[in-house]
Design goal:
With 316 residues, the protein is an alpha/beta fold. The protein has 10 helices and 12 strands. The protein has 2 domains: 90 residues, 3-Layer(aba) Sandwich (Rossmann fold); 141 residues, Rossmann fold (3-Layer(aba) Sandwich). Helix 2 links the parallel strand 3 and strand 4.
């Protein structure tokens, strides 16, 4: 593979794969969203995002703060509803109903996981499909399944992964059409919608999972590999087809070296792919952290802007 002039892809070592820089690409997405949001505000519509956090899960709190910061950067009207862990399902559904009816709110995000006494499916299905900026509502899932990407709000992590893949393919001078793609993971949040997006780009798609008979052989066929299983280092480097584009969705916390200032053992984040060995065989690969993660929030902002644009269009 020849060297390319693109700041979004950099070599992982002298002979390694190109790194797909999710941080840089996400910043370009946010800058574009902010510019388009400014134009929408000038027309009289300010995109509004409401984030609902139930309980005190530390990771969820970090994600919610990051989403609020991104919304402010994009010039959105942003509100956060932080509710006690003991909040009843009825009260949460009542809040969702109020947000559905609020014309200043174009996107609603209920942060998962929810407390065990709350039926998450019931809550997510209560969100208006037009404001479902997470893309989890069955209506949006159905539109994606039938290939109606013009009307669907696509789940943010698959949408961000697809954008990274498209940027990498363009920079490397290859077409996605006809490529053999393997998605490892079959969740409704990432695996299944990712497969639908790849199909829409005319890839030949296989979904692999924990019951796949020979996972190594299946992965080895992939010209495009998307790993989304939530198991640290599950995909081994020797399985990777030479030159493949690898999108690692996994974010797994494992033991690090030493202890922190408080004396607790340090941890570090790794993906579902064994990065060091995979980077020696892949053509391009996302790092963890710094790959897919930043894209999820950027695509949430993009979905919110799109929901606001559609709302404005419907009132004309």
């Amino acid at each position: 593979m020849t060297e390319i002039a693109n700041t979004e892809l950099r070599r992982a070592g002298e002979d390694g794969a190109f790194l797909i820089d999710g941080k840089e690409i996400s910043q370009s997405v946010l800058a574009d969203v902010a510019a388009r949001a400014s134009a929408l505000v000038a027309s009289g519509v300010k995109p509004g995002l409401a984030v609902v956090l139930v309980g005190e899960d530390p990771a969820s709190a970090v994600y919610v703060r990051a989403k609020g910061k991104a919304a402010a950067t994009c010039g959105f009207h942003s509100v956060q509803h932080t509710l006690p862990a003991a909040t009843s399902e009825a009260d949460l559904l009542a809040l969702v109903a109020r947000l559905n009816a609020d014309p200043a709110i174009h996107g609603i995000l209920v942060q998962l996981p929810l407390p065990s006494h709350v039926n998450a499916t019931r809550v997510l299905e209560a969100i208006s499909p037009a404001k479902d900026v997470d893309g989890f509502h069955p209506f949006n899932a159905g539109l994606l399944a039938i290939g109606d990407l013009g009307r669907a709000l696509v789940p943010c992590t698959p949408a961000g992964s697809m954008l990274l893949l498209e940027r990498a393919a363009k920079a490397l001078g290859v077409s996605l059409a006809g490529k053999e793609a393997v998605v490892v993971g079959r969740s409704n949040i990432v695996g299944k919608p990712m497969a639908q997006l790849l199909l829409a780009r005319n890839c030949t798609v296989t979904i692999a999972h924990s019951r796949t008979a020979d996972l190594a052989a299946t992965v080895g066929r992939a010209e495009i590999l998307v790993a989304a299983v939530g198991r640290a280092g599950m995909i081994r480097g020797e399985w990777i087809r030479p030159g493949a584009i690898v999108i690692d969705v996994g974010i797994n916390r494992v033991a690090g070296e030493g202890v922190d200032a408080s004396g607790k053992p340090k941890t570090r984040l790794v993906g579902d792919v064994d990065f060091a060995s995979a980077a020696r065989r892949a053509g391009a690969i996302t790092p963890v952290p710094g790959g897919v993660g930043p894209m999820t929030i950027a695509m949430l902002m993009s979905n919110t802007l799109e929901a606001a644009r559609r709302s404005a269009s419907s009132r004309l």
